[in-house]
Amino acid sequence: MSASIEHHFETEEQQRDAATLGMWVFLATEVLFFGGLFMSYTFLRWSHEAAVEASSRHLELALGSINTALLLTSSFVMAAGVHFTEKGRYRMAAAMLALTALMGIGFLAVKGTEYHAVISDGHWPGSRFHALGLSPAAPGPEELFFWLYFVMTGLHALHVLAGVVVLATIAVMLERSSKNARSHPASVSRNTVHNAGLYWHFVDIVWVFLFPLLYLAGHW
Description:
CATH class: Mainly Alpha
Helix content: over 70%
Distance between the termini: 49 Å
CATH superfamily: Cytochrome c oxidase, subunit III, four-helix bundle
Number of domains: 1
Shape: elongated
CATH topology: Four Helix Bundle (Hemerythrin (Met), subunit A)
Number of strands: 0
């Protein structure tokens, strides 16, 4: 599946390398973005370890574990999609990307269920926040933990949603291309699928860090 070469590139390889570099630069900025939140969490845990551990025990560990399994499995499926694209098996690639997107939707559904449970328990940061009993007169550290929880997991969920939309779109285009061997739109080039895979793996890696920090802190 060859992509058309844009006028500002001399070769297809140059165009592919530029697109890959652009994706890595984008992911680097995302690392810096999440890095600030991870530093905030680190400071909170260093200064209020007991409050963080108590707050962590109020999260749904089972739901977090299910989501971890979904994303880790989706990474393998996404890698298979990239592999099938490289081999020219576009219908199988489309199926793998569609399955990855479905797992992403499953992740978001579980996350929504978890949010509902946490909010129902009164742990939404604000004037109605329910202290956990550790320091009811000054629930600041506990409330800050849940503030970070919602911000970090919420931003991650937005990234998952963006990935689901992108993967579903590429899957549809791959399926259409598989029906016409002469159809080679640049939007479904091998490099497009490869870069989509890089993005999805980044999303998975961020969750691999979020899960132990937020869900396992009170169980170590």
